[in-house]
Amino acid sequence: MPNKIKCTVTECQYNSAVECGAPMIQVERNNSGSASNSDQTKCETFKPKHM
Ligand code: SF4
């Protein structure tokens, strides 16, 4: 069964109906050497729509 990623960032070009359609996403630490909560992570695959 394929993994599904629910994502509410609907302004991303990979987003369709609050679901990520990218074949793979890359998630990185967000200005942190060692993340301790989800605020310290970010989706690097995000691309704005219409660009
Ligand atoms: S690429 Fe990242 S930001 Fe864009 S829809 Fe997928 S999970 Fe959300």
UniProtKB/TrEMBL annotation:
Residues 5-46 form the DUF1540 domain. Signal peptide: none annotated. Residues 29-40 have a biased composition (Polar residues). Residues 29-51 are annotated as: Disordered. InterPro entries: DUF1540. Residues 41-51 have a biased composition (Basic and acidic residues). This is DUF1540 domain-containing protein. It comes from Desulfocucumis palustris.
